[in-house]
Amino acid sequence: MTPIAFYKCLSEDTRLKCLLLITLKGELCVCDLISALQLSQPKVSRHLAELRKCGILSDQRRGKWVFYKINHALPRWALEVLTLTTKDNHIYLNDCLHNLDTAKLTDNCC
């Protein structure tokens, strides 16, 4: 993973939010990200597929849902960037985290 490839993958708002939410929560299902981002399933899935293609995310199918987590083979420097960005940007994620928490209380999608 080169720095240019890594940062290109993070250059879109939806992809960045997905990555930061997954970094914060450890693992999220597509339905969790749909709720958090308030976007359609096809749009979220398309961005997750890009992140998987970049090598940043890994996925695991469980029934009809796919769960995503940070790829364990990601270089240490990239993991540190994601961790630090997540830690220092809660305001950027506040709405998404609120949506995710609300959905978890009311909806059992996966």
List keywords for this structure.
alpha+beta, 3-stranded antiparallel sheet, 6 helices, about 65% helix
Helix content, binned percent: 55-70%
- The total count of strands amounts to 3
Which whole number gives the mean pLDDT? 93
Compute the CA-based radius of gyration: 13 Å
Main sheet strand line-up:
1-3-2
Number of continuous helical runs: 6
Q: Span from first to last CA?
A: 32 Å
SSE pattern: HHEHHEEHH
The first-level CATH class name:
Mainly Alpha
Secondary structure class reads alpha+beta
Strand content: 5-15%
Report the major sheet. Answer: 3 strands, antiparallel
CATH fold label: Arc Repressor Mutant, subunit A
Envelope shape = globular
The total tally of domains equals: 1
Instruction: Name the CATH superfamily classification.
Output: Winged helix-like DNA-binding domain superfamily/Winged helix DNA-binding domain
Parts with pLDDT < 50 across at least 5 consecutive residues: none
**The CATH architecture:** Orthogonal Bundle
